[in-house]
Amino acid sequence: MSKLDRMIDRTGTGAVKWDSLKEVFGVEDALPMWVADMDFEAPNPVIEAIKQQAEHGIFGYTAVPNSTKEVIKEWQASRHNWEIETNWLLFNHGVVPSISLAIEALTEKGDAVVVQSPVYTPFFEMIERNERQVVNNQLILKDNHYHIDFDDLEQKVSAEEVKLLLLCSPHNPGGRVWTKEELTKMAELCQQHNVIIVSDEIHGDLTAVPHIHTPIAAIKEDYQDFIITLIAPSKTFNLAGLQASAIIVPNEGLRNKLKKAQAKQGFFTLNMMGIAGMEAAYREGAPWLDEAIAYIRENIQLVENYIDSEIPELTVIKPEGSYLIWIDCRRLELSDEELMKKVLHEGKLALGQGSKYRTGGEGFLRMNVACPRAMVEDGLQRLNKAIKG
Question: Which of 189, 126, 129 shows the shortest CA–CA distance to 162?
Fold first, then answer.
């Protein structure tokens, strides 16, 4: 029995996934498989590092040490074959704040930002809250696989008002791990039209063979002049509550703009537990991650097999990376509201609503399977009950 099979009670701990059901869904008795965090205990080295920090007993201002920067550099080299420099690194509380930071620092009010829907909801929210325009290069779902509409993308990035493209790589919620060829084509178009790419690569560490996550900035040296990469240990090692992420910015001019915007916000440093957890995870967490990826892939296969045999009305878009499964429910011919009501009230199951990922997400559900297998099995039975009525 894997230690990842262990069911840990998270209720009453302030966990958004478990304790916010009433606020988000209006119910309290549903099984939560919606928020993108794991129900696995963090790697032991992370827990021990935080314990040591706590036992020291002094919790004053803490700068991010060079050792943390070095271990991030080593992680990118060993895991993704990307040689970065430590002076390229900036830090922030999370990837979403970094998306907002980049929009604020690198564009002006009224400028346009390209996204590729259906995509992670905060992409839209950060653009809109910063009073920029959303320009959508909608992905094409063909043969149960998402593709980029490059003709449309070229048209969109060539517009004068478009200054930035938000790339989700690997893609959330569709699970695509973009190929080197696809990423190169995107980068070439953006380079040609002077569009900055902000690449959210938070799911990159969770890519499973035979797929390979390629950091878009690593493909070609001159791409580093206009690409900013966002990473974090939060999805990889289940450390979202530590609120620690990194921004890789090779171009000094762009880096200085981000620093200036952070200074305006009053950002100074990460909290000491986030620093300790991040460093321990990247330094010693690889064996835990390899085990977790293998376990998650088995969960994904379980979901695919079960839905194929027991709920053939639905179709699984099998993820190439991440632990999020995008489920096509359109053959049920239900509105998103009807679908969610059915799943929530008849199945007692809380999943992500597809329409929240905007155009192209209608009629889909997002399921998080980074959890013990018994929970996945329970979730599938609840889904079956909801669909079969």
Answer: 189
